[in-house]
Fold these 2 entries.
Entry 1:
Amino acid sequence: MQRTRIKICGLTRPEDVAAAVSAGADALGFVFYPKSPRFVTAAQAAAMMSAVPPFVSTVGLFVNASPAEVAAVTHIAPVSQLQFHGDETAQQCAALAASANRPFLRVFRVRPDTRGADLLEYENEYRAASPLFSGLLLDTFVDAYGGAGKVFDWSIVPKDIAPRVVLSGGLSVQNATDAVVRVRPYAVDISSGVEQQKGIKDAHKIAAFVQAVRVADATSESENHHERST
Ligand SMILES: O=C(O)c1ccccc1NCC(=O)[C@H](O)[C@H](O)COP(=O)(O)O
């Protein structure tokens, strides 16, 4: 059975890290963008990461950060990978990742006029720019940079790219099963949909979200089985 990977983003409290790990999250996101309500310092993130068990990834999220800012964080907080969420070019992402010696996720902020071909072209550009490119994370374009809880039109995601992308943007306990069954992404990423208030996660919502994704995995498996046997 395909097991859709799950990233919980925007963690600011040790108890929220514990809730995400105990619910079965595969990756934990820490926001190093000072204007975010979910901003954490490198020292705060490092303290939270010290309680993360083996085989759970930690992701450091940056928006238009300088090489010095990324280096200052990665010297202190042992993130396993980077996420570039701003207007960085492919060359800038490649250089930031190389200097931090970490793989990176590139966020594509989907607009109403985005077409599937745009995603494939963007992915090719990043793949060509760096061996440290680990994949695209699809989020909804909003004027602010992210964590806004807005959904985009999932039908634009081409079937041939879906198994490699991280789907995000307005996911919730209510829409997670539908999103995963329809798109069949490699992974999903959620922030505001599992919060009580900005930056404060809700352990029950995290557990319910993980459960909703697992229901989708089981549904997709039974659909695959049905397709194979007819
Ligand atoms: O969380 C923030 O405040 C934030 C600030 C600047 C850039 C990105 C930010 N968050 C990104 C995420 O948490 C997620 O990758 C994604 O945007 C999904 O968020 P949501 O729609 O709230 O689930």
Entry 2:
Amino acid sequence: MLLQIFNIETFNWSFGILFSRLVRLPSMDGRVALVPWADMLNHNCEVETFLDYDKSSQGIVFTTDRAYQPGEQVFISYGRKSNGELLLSYGFVPREGTNPSDSVELSFSLKKSDKCYKEKVEALKKHGLSASECFPIQVTGWPLELMAFAYLVVSPPSMSRQFGEMAAAASNKSTSKKDMKYPEIEEEALQFILDSCESSISKYSKFLQASGEMDLDITNPKQLNRRVFLKQLAVDLCTSERRILFRSQYILRRRLRDIRSGELKALNLFDGLRNLFK
Ligand SMILES: C[S@@+](CC[C@H](N)C(=O)[O-])C[C@H]1O[C@@H](n2cnc3c(N)ncnc32)[C@H](O)[C@@H]1O
């Protein structure tokens, strides 16, 4: 009986309405509430205002972080979310380059051909990780955990004693939170991250190119509008994620160029000294 009333479309609609409108209240241990007036507030990535329960007035209070002019739209923050998260939870993608919390999740894996594959998997397992892991890339760079994972992936058998600390740092369970450095394999680790970024960039580019050529069914105008809308959202999301990857590609290439030119300088200096003493 219930199933008849609650068909899947109604369920999806209710789920969407609930999740795009509920408010988490930090002072009530993150409990959620539906707050009728507050669900009219739209999100803006640049504001830092949230809703919370206020004990003294026993109500939900909204305090703005700036002055607004009469007639100006007042915004709220739905939280520091990536464009992908905003699309999934709220059905929109902020304008490209306006979301400082935007990030793209990239998957990285140990190489199956690695002589130390088993030892590395064991080290990762001890810290709750597996042979393939996802890490968020932001326009400002990549997390220390990813750098540690990349070090583990490229480290040779001679560094097996460091596998444990690399895996711990990749899982964010390392005791020291500072940037770990293994200069002897830094170039390889950065190249490994760059290869993943570039392979993703080419997938995004293929999708974006294909989306320009995608044929939409024009026999059903109602569905056409919805398809055009959904397609635009997908294009907006992919464009913003690819932009983050392009930025990382630029930073990685520059860092690799610096390392390589430093190595070249050291080599030239060494050759120069050798010639001097010949
Ligand atoms: C809590 S409601 C906000 C009020 C909503 N605009 C309304 O008229 O009922 C959340 C929904 O508003 C829309 N929304 C909020 N912020 C937005 C933004 N910056 N850009 C586009 N749509 C937004 C999305 O559809 C989202 O699911």
